[in-house]
Amino acid sequence: MYIRYALLPLLICSVWRISNADFPDDPKPCKFGDDECLLKAVNFYLSDKNQGDSAINLLKIDPLDAGTFTLKQGADNPVNIDLTFIKNKITGVAHAQAYKVRGFGKDLAKKHELRFKVPVASLIGDYKIQGRVLILPISGSGKNNITMLNADFVLQWVGVPVEKDGATYMKTDKFRAIVKPNKVIFDFQNLFNGDKALGDNMNLFLNENWKEIYQEVEATFSKEISRLMGNVVDAVFSKTPYNKLFTE
Length: 248
Known about the structure:
Blueprint: H1 7-18, H2 35-48, E1 64-72, E2 79-91, E3 97-102, E4 111-133, E5 136-164, E6 167-180, E7 183-188, H3 196-208, H4 210-237
Antiparallel strand pairs: 1-2, 2-4, 3-4, 4-5, 5-6, 5-7
Helix pairs in contact: 1-2, 1-4
């Protein structure tokens, strides 16, 4: 489920590197708002630079360290859970494809958007869960693997100018991550204190009802992803003044 995440730093990196003539297929810097150039750059970094680049604060994105975070749903929701993911990592970002970019013009204080397709992205690590999913109680702790297939990721934010050392940098505001998978596959090991029959039946139930379950947790999930990804993007944009990322 946390595919989330990894895609954002790539864009920023790609733009910065292209402006430094390090993009093999397009040695010229991208112009402000040049969607085609930006898409080439983003996809190059997704496929060829997914192990990170310290020069521009780009993290290793495949696997991406998702850390520890908690999803909570209240008792008035059909999915009422307290779910903590512990030391999770996200895989699959290296195979993502950016297909649309909007914004990145001379006026940074506009809406910016990136759209990606990710064939397979998995959130893998440890979990702890307690609560109810639709009509069934659920509890357990152990290893998790949550995989999204053919997911559409939309990242949106509004740029805010920040003056630093006589230069203008972009900081994100109103950051949103929207994730629309074609299918979600759940695998929670050691549910119900290791009762295999109950655990297998619960995983089967989750996978048969993945669409309804995802719809219920989507808002909470997207909020967490937005927070994590916004921090990553801000870190990259804080490295280089905005006007040095592009050419006239």
